Amino acid sequence: MYRASRRLKPVTVWALLALACCAVFGAVAADAQTAIGVVVPANAEAVDTGIDVLPGDEVLLRASGRWTNGGGSPQYVEAGGFGPGAFPSARFPTLPLAALAGFVGIDVIPVSVPMRLSSRGRLQLAMNDVAGTYGDNAGVLKVAVAFYAGVAPMPGLVGKSVGAAREELAAFGFEPEVVAQPSTAYPAGMVSVQAPEPGTDLHGVPVVRLTVSTGPPPPPPASGGPSMEVQPPVWIPPATTPVPDIVGWSALEGEQRLRGVGLTAIPAGGRLSRYPSGQVLQTEPVAGTPVVRGSKVEYWFASGENLVPSVEGSPVADADAEMQAAGFANLSHRATWSARPAGEVVRQSHRPGRPASLRAGIVLQVSRGWAGPAGIAALILGALATASTVWWRRRRIGATRKLVQVSADVEDETELREMESKGFSAPPVAIEVALEDGETAIDGNVPIISHKVTHE
After folding, report:
1. If you classify domain 154-216+232-238 with CATH, what class do you get?
2. CA nearest to 166, candidates 289, 294, 320
3. CATH architecture, domain 241-303
4. Which of 10, 248, 426, 444 has the most Cβ atoms closer than 10 angstroms to its Cβ?
5. What is the per-residue pLDDT across 185-221, written as a single tens digit (0 to 9) for each?
6. For 105-146, how does the pLDDT look when each residue is reduced to its tens digit (9 = 90+)?
7. Backbone angles phi, psi at 165, to 5 degrees
8. Which residues of 355-382 are buried (b: 16+ CB within 10 A; e: fewer)?
């Protein structure tokens, strides 16, 4: 029976994804949520959603479609990537390789998981892949982004100290631009003007500006005296803080420490190292550098892998020390007979110069030395067994028929039969024999297949 089929139109796909997102947030605040559709190509390192978020906002991602991160044999996967495990060497090490990722500031948003944000900025989307390897990616995802914008009104800061104003704005992720001007209404150090006005929604506001009083202006000059020039506004630089030293900390602890001093942590990727996976190796700027609060600090972390050192030919104690210095602690030994001196590493299970997980079990084959009595006997028996096997294989080669011609003085065939009946070996006659390869015809040692008697 013929049955008509209908394909979903792109608009229908977007609508279904949006409804799925709204169903999750519906119980939270149906009047404050928004859902939009975004196409995310696999080879794009960042796709701008056009959504400005603030700390406290919630985001949910839903996606349809398949994509691949390339490679020799591309495998297409859905938005969850090659889950469920994390991939330390990728841009977002807490997510699986090839998974869809939303990101803003220090927040990384997985697919299908509602998340409350702690950063301010523009929400972007991308595949989780190793940085610099997006060129061979293929495929696209259709992503529905649902977000709930929390209440974020601009606080009233006029009349407050500049320090208190900065603290209030930091809760929304802002570091204000500050200038100083004389004021008769507010004492020195107090905010006299703010922009934007109190109550303004801070979503989408690029910068907050504050004017701080320097106190009353100087009195006008006496009559007939020289006129005083009007002083221009004095720019007060934003507050700075030194970059804390987080090298040696875990990535999570390092990010928390950076956030505690008003800085934004950006994971720059994993590197081969002897240190445990996720441990911070380097920051940019380096520790101690004074930076403006709200600045970004990139950090690199250990990927959990390192290059395997070459220890063949080394004493086993030195080989163990070199392996452990490279971060490989799961070592085992296997004794073997060898022409090398006793205690020397003959072979290693993992190829030197290649990256391997620090948790990998590495086996070192260690020489027992040139064999003792038992070892010599084993070597001799092994050599004999090998020689026997070769000889037997030669014997098993198919027989070749050969004709050996000999002469004899036999009167007739009756005489030949009589001699054979009395137990005499058959005299040399023209006989046809079956010989193995390499075998020679010797009287009495070859089976007679047939014989012919020649009469003179």
Report:
1. alpha beta
2. 294
3. 2-Layer Sandwich (3.30)
4. 426
5. 888 889 999 999 998 888 878 889 999 988 888 777 6
6. 888 999 998 988 888 888 999 999 987 788 889 999 999 999
7. -65, -40
8. ebebeeebebbbbbeeeeeeeeeeeeee
Residue given tokens 């944000």 in the structure block: 117
Please give the single-letter amino acid code of residue 2.
Answer: Y
DSSP character string of 214-264:
--SPPPPPPTTSPPPPPPPPEEEPPPEEEPP--TTSBHHHHHHHHHHTT-E
- For residues 163 and 181, what is the distance between their CA atoms, to the nearest angstrom? 17
Instruction: Please identify, in words, the CATH class of the domain defined by 10-148.
Output: mainly beta
β-strand partners of 306: 356
CB atoms within 10 A of CB 319: 24
Q: Which fold has domain 306-396?
A: Trypsin Inhibitor V; Chain A (3.30.10)
How far apart are alpha carbons 374 and 397 in whole angstroms?
A: 35
In 130-162, which positions are buried (b, 16+ CB within 10 angstroms) versus exposed (e)? Answer: eeeebeebebebbbbbbbbbbebebbebbebeb
330: three-class secondary structure by DSSP = coil
Which pTM value belongs to this model? 0.47
- Domain range summary for the chain, segments of one domain joined by +: 10-148, 154-216+232-238, 241-303, 306-396, 400-452
Note whether 241-303 and 306-396 share their fold. Answer: yes
